[in-house]
Amino acid sequence: MRLKSPTAMKKGARPGAPGTTKAYSGYFTHPVSTIQARHAASQLMRALIQLLTVDHTPREVMDTVSGASNGPALVHAARKLGIGIVTERESVFGGATNRGVYSLEPGSRAAALQLLRQMEARHG
Fold first, then answer.
1. DSSP collapsed to 3 states, 39-55
2. pTM, full prediction
3. Given this structure, which CATH class describes domain 23-123?
4. What is the pLDDT along the chain (124 residues), one digit of tens a residue?
5. How far is CA 73 from each of CA 44, 69, 78, 115, rounded to the nearest angstrom?
6. Extents of the domains making up the chain
């Protein structure tokens, strides 16, 4: 798997048009700068490291560890890059509400490690 590098947005281009970028296959829903793409990559790297380290990670922990305010967007970006992530619902507060708990699919550890190596080589 090879990551596509973000490209600069051409002046006057619409999102999704050739010459625009959606960093890491859809993490952002609008064209981004190189700085935003690098920030998104570092958030995604921290999220993958968390998933590789801890078997079940609640959304709140994912947000805190990655420095993101939208953990589901990170999970979506990782899935679009071929990483299998399972989302389970866990009851909290006596069943009054549910929270998302993320874990890697058993066959996705190798793909997640490969993606981390590629991202680290690209972004340092």
1. HHHHHHHHHHHHHHHCC
2. 0.66
3. mainly alpha
4. 444 444 443 444 444 444 444 444 444 455 556 666 676 778 888 899 999 999 899 999 988 888 878 888 888 888 998 899 999 998 888 877 888 899 999 889 999 999 888 888 876 6
5. 10, 9, 9, 17
6. 23-123
| Distance set, CA 12 to CA 3, 8, 15, 80, 87 (Å) | 26, 12, 10, 27, 38
Residue tagged 């981390």 (tokens): 116
Cα angle, residue 104 at apex, residues 59 and 42 outer, rounded to 5°? 65
Q: How far is CA 109 from CA 22, 73, 113, in A?
A: 25, 20, 6
Residue with tokens 């939208």: 70
